[in-house]
Structure formats: structure tokens, C-alpha cells
Amino acid sequence: MFLSLHRFKKNNEGVAAVEFAILAPFMIILFLGMVEVSDLMMAHRRVTIVTSTVADLVAQAEQITDDDVADVFDASRLIMSPYDSTAIQIRVTSVDINLDGTVEVGWSDGYNMTPYAVDDPFILPTGIGAPGGSIIVSEVSFDYNSIVKFINVATITMTDSFFALPRRTLAIQRIP
Hints:
With 176 residues, the chain is α+β, with helices and mostly antiparallel strands. 39% of the residues lie in helices and 24% in strands. The longest helix has 45 residues, at 15-59. The radius of gyration is 27 Å and the shape is rod-shaped.
């Protein structure tokens, strides 16, 4: 009996398999977590790029039409690829800064997002814009759904906004 216990104590066959069985679930979860975090960071970066691109494209125009706005929204959806472009919400707004210092919406368009009403007051961050001019404001919201369903089941909403000065004129005219 003592001989078989002694042999059992000295036998280390299968130790690696036991260690692997203990560590494998942790390593798999760690790997999937890193995949999820990197995908989340890439989606957030795409939202930031879309936000700045929308404002930049609109700020380059002197006047903008319905077709121009549709093209900007189409380009934005392409930038979001490979993510679900139907989950993105975009609003682009021209905000007028009157000579008396009041700030109001000149025009606004939205994709899956309600545009602001014309002449509604608008709050800009301090130091942006000058009286008599306008600012192009781009706002984007995106609902990110986890690619690793059992790690993160919640939808994460990413939002961003970007401000741009019109480049060729004081205020970009909106033509239907």
C-alpha cells in the first residue's frame, strides 16, 4: 500500500493537462475580451472620423442642396463599414451667430436623427465663432453591439460632436 502511494506521489504525468484545464478558460476569456475591446475602440474611432468628415465636407461648400446632404450621409455610412450603418444617427446643423450675440439654428438636416428647427436657440461652447458668422455642427450617435455576445450583452451608445467654420463664406446657404 505504501509503495503505490509513493508511486502516485512521484508520478507527474498529466500535470500539464491539469494546468491547461485550469488556465484555458481564463486565457480564452482574456483573448475574447481583448478582441472586444479592440473592436470597440475601432468603432469609436470610426464614429469620430464620421463626425469630423461630415462637418468638414459641409464646411467646404458655399451652398448645400438635398443631393449634397444625401451624398455626405452616404459617405458617412461607408466610413462606418464594416459596422451596421443603419445604427448610425447623424445631424448636421448650421448655427448662426447674430451680431447681438444670440445663437440660433440657420438650418439642420438629419439621418436617423431629428434635425433642429430653424431659428431655435442653440448653445455653443464658449469661444467658438464670432458675431456675424456661423458654425457647422456635426453630431453623430452610434449604437455598438458586442461581437462577443456572452461577454458584453449591453448596447453601448457612442456620441461625438464636431464644430467647423465655413471655409468659403460666412454662412453656408441651404438650398432645397
